[in-house]
Amino acid sequence: MNNLSSILPTILILSDSHGRNLQTNTITSHYQVKTISVSGLQWKNVYDQSLCLFSLIHQDQFSSLISSTSYLLLLVGTNSLRNLPATEVINQVDDILHFLYSQHHHLINQKIIITSCIPCFKISRRFPTVASLMNNIHYYNQLLFELSSENYFLYFYLQVPTHWLGNDMIHVTSQHRHDFSNSFLNYINSLQIHTTLQTRHNIRSREVVSRRNKKRNLKLKQIQKLYTLTRQLSPLWSYTHVKHYLKYLGIRYGSLSIISNNMLNLRFNNVFHLNHANDILSLNIFDSNSFTRWVQEHP
Fold first, then answer.
1. Using CA of residue 126, residue 129, residue 130, residue 133, what is the dihedral sign?
2. Domains of the chain (ranges plus CATH)?
3. Residue 229: enclosing H or E segment and its boundaries?
4. SS3 for 49?
5. What tens digit of pLDDT does each residue of 254-293 get?
6. 11, 179, 185 from 191: Cα distances, Å
7. N vs C: which end of the chain shows fewer Cβ within 10 Å?
8. pLDDT tens track for 15-28
9. Superkingdom, according to UniProt (predicted)?
10. pTM passes above 0.90
């Protein structure tokens, strides 16, 4: 079995406490699953790095595991969504995806799986009613699904009936632990992962990769045409100044251009980033007075 496991495709699950319902190691004839569960884990946590997924994936131990896995499945979200609005949490997910893709290129082609957030009725200071908390979770799941098409990861809609939850209103009871675990195995089986020996025939040629990238870039350009924001721009603003200013404001955009009549066109990859920018960028934010203040404060 050890010899078999060494050649089987691996699915690495990084999870919060919900992962305690899963086996630490599962080996089948087609794949093996390794689960690492960290109670209290959030996408990002500025107060405790040990509970911050973004920090953990920077560590050599986790980086090594991710580098050798065929699929990375992320079961995270509940702890973040009890404390932050869905829009902020999605921004964190986006940051983590960009980091993972930049460091682990083998995960780019839909080799990352992110589960939806399961129901949670344990209210918090930020969300003092069950209705407000569940609305936040539902909105997050909607944004996560939209993000999956943009960032090329697999969205795993994890169906957990509310009667599976225990008295703490956040965790699945031991009575339904097997049902919860089976949900994951059924999903992984649906991926049809099989052991294959790499040959010249299954290595993608440069031409195939090039065609795929062209198709992806064309699709992204079409999306960006739908999500464009325009602002009047003082001639004092250069491309460099605009880019630095947008980065300072935390604006995530796909591309930008300055056209001849001093108009700035910002193109975005999704409606969430567009709306976020529209809320921050007033109509006169790129006038000469704003430029003077920016240069004085950031020489």
1. negative
2. 2-190 (3.40.50.1110), 206-297 (3.30.70)
3. strand 228-232
4. helix
5. 888 888 788 999 988 777 788 889 999 999 999 999 999 9
6. 11, 19, 10
7. C
8. 999 999 999 999 99
9. Eukaryota
10. no
